[in-house]
Amino acid sequence: MFVAWRFSQYLSLLSVTLFSISGSYAAKLPNPDVGFNSKLRSGHGSPLASNIRILPSSESHNISWPLNSSSPILDPSSEATPLNAPALSKPLLSCSGAAYGRNLRLASCGQVYMTMSSDTVPRSFGERFTGEWDAPLPFRYLSHDGLCAIDLSHAAGVNGDIIAPFDLKEAASLIIRVCIAVSPNQGGLVTGLGANNGLSLRIVPYRPTVTCGPAGSFSPDDLACRGVIDRMPANNKRQVFGPKDQPGTTVGLPWGYTTGRRKCGAVVDTIEEGKISEESDWYKIWAAANAVDFMCCQVGRRGVATGLGDHKRLYAELRDLTQPSLGRSNATVATE
To answer: Quick one: angle between helices 106-114 and 2-17, nearest 10?
Structure first.
């Protein structure tokens, strides 16, 4: 109870002192709401919040979302129907330290919660590269210290769904109250969100290795890097990142993608020169690029995430491509 009271006091203070972050971090979504909603403290939320069923720790959830997975999966041992089946009319919340991490930093989760939009207009969220969506999935909100992630993705068997950003924020507030603002705390998952119960939201810890450039080293157009990240692959298929002419390579290095005016470019390469190959998947690379955006680019700094790949020899960088690389000083890249 003391931890929950301390959280409410922290958020009351945060609503006064937190500076407004420019722009929205969801593609085409309204600016974030920087005023804290007292519903989180009182527990009286929207109709969505009151309809979410909280599973006791003794009751297993038929859906899981592994930390390094881009979307939830159905428990293979379960006989449950997919999330979008009519039988699952109520969203479910579950807390699990084993599945979603422990010892989340409350201040970090409160800060990223405050950046979420409170807009009540429904928006479309769907798997990237499958159609025109207001925001592609998976989508991540990340605290500026990189320690707390709020993830949104689609259920198995569906490409996407429609939901108001306000309802996503309510789901996040419930996870914070039930799973994180307690001692000991743990991450949590809400499934069955959206008009067709096709979306899931989780809050989990994250520990990126990110280095930012000096202040003022990056001044992109509004949401320039968000546009790049929204067009990156983000699936769990294993890839071999290596020289383009090396047998077995599935992603030629250096890999790059940029906006038309090259104001923000995403670059993936190895930290060493030579014919080096690394295995990883795009979801881990995409998550690292998100960390650079939230921790560096959004405060006017270019940045690089290191320690990627099975042998930690890959880096992911976001920068103005007219500037030198932080990953390897002599690196050059042809962008897609």
So the answer is: 40
pLDDT at 261: 66
What amino acid is encoded at 110 in this protein? G
DSSP code of residue 322: T
Instruction: Provide the 8-state DSSP code for 102.
Output: B
87-100 pLDDT, tens per residue? Answer: 345 799 999 999 99
Pick the closest to residue 91 from 229, 195, 2 (CA basis): 195
| Residue 13: closest CA among 119, 110, 79, 134 | 110
Identify whether 254 is preceded by a cis peptide bond (ω within 30 of 0).
Answer: yes
Which tokens in the block code for residue 17?
């002192």
Q: CB-based contacts of 47: which residues, under 8 Å, 6+ apart?
A: none
pLDDT band at 205 (very low <50, low <70, confident <90, very high): very high
Cβ atoms of 100 and 203 within 8 Å: the answer is yes
Model confidence at 152, pLDDT cuts 50, 70, 90, reads: very high
Coil, strand or helix at 335: coil
Average pLDDT of the segment spanning 236-245: 95
Report phi then psi at 201, rounded to 5. -130, 135
Q: What is the pTM of this model?
A: 0.83
> Could you tell me if 128 and 119 are in contact, meaning their C-beta atoms sit under 8 angstroms apart?
no
Number of CB atoms found within 10 A of residue 276's CB: 18
